[in-house]
Amino acid sequence: MRCPILLCHYMAQWHGYLKQILVDNGSEFTSSVFADWAAAHNIFVDYIERFNRSYRNEVLDCYLFNNLNEVNQLTEDWIKVYNTERPHDSLNDMTPVEYRQVA
């Protein structure tokens, strides 16, 4: 559990503490120790498990890529649709772009 915290402290020596960390639902990130540490450093922790699953199911598992450029291009296209055209249940059926404009 201490590894992510130690890594963040190490990185902060050169770059300062982050304002936000995006993580999956791994036990190292869902513990109260990590949550307390993030709160003590004014770091907002956001969980992106759904994003990871959707990306894997809709991009990585659907194509055979010939090179990294293909992965990058398809990923850029998918993220654009994900953020601008696709409503999210967790955002009251708004796209992330719409939600940011309202917030």
UniProtKB/TrEMBL annotation:
Residues 47-96 form the Integrase catalytic domain. It holds the Pfam family rve_3. It comes from the Bacteria. GO terms for biological process: DNA integration. SUPFAM superfamilies: Ribonuclease H-like. Transmembrane segments: none annotated. GO terms for molecular function: nucleic acid binding. This is Integrase-like protein.
